[in-house]
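All the exercises in this workshop are built on plain-text protein records. Instead of coordinates, the fold is spelled out as a row of discrete tokens. Once this layout is familiar, the rest of the handout is easier to follow. The record below serves as our worked example for the rest of this section.
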Amino acid sequence: MPEHVQERKPKISASRKLMLKSLMVAKAKEELEQEILVKEEEKQKYLAEKAPPLNTSSLSLAQLQDLCRELHEKVDVVDEERYDIEAKVMLNTREIKDLNIKVLDLRGKFKRPNLRRVRVSADAILRSLLGSKHKVSMDLRANLKSVKKEDTEKKRPVEDSDWRKNVEAMSGMEGRKKMFDAAKGPAQ
């Protein structure tokens, strides 16, 4: 591998790049403004076609009532169409969600839901798992080993039965001498 690698010089200078970027941004801004104007014109054409301006100045009361009835019928039709379209959109979004879940399942990657801590007894868990088959309540204390008090009392040495005597005997210099002698005694 060569140790001295020549750095490549850019084909376009920095000032030229900046100028081109600014021109591209200006062009994109113009196109965006034109697109907004075109959409507004289309909207005006559609409204003029679907809802022509009303001329109510020369109409009598009966004609105005007929006009109101016609407008109400049109509003009802539009509401029905809107409801149908919303139902289709909801159905499509639900289908899209289901398909996304299937895709994730096929990939093997799952989104983990946020889990909440729930306090559930052992009986409730067994009831949910086994359903109506679960009849016996689970008593966890029944399986514990029972300990008799008599066994623990028999294991204690008789010497420690009265702890006050032992404390009085070991207090002072005599108690320390006994401990020293006891430690020294088995070594001899």
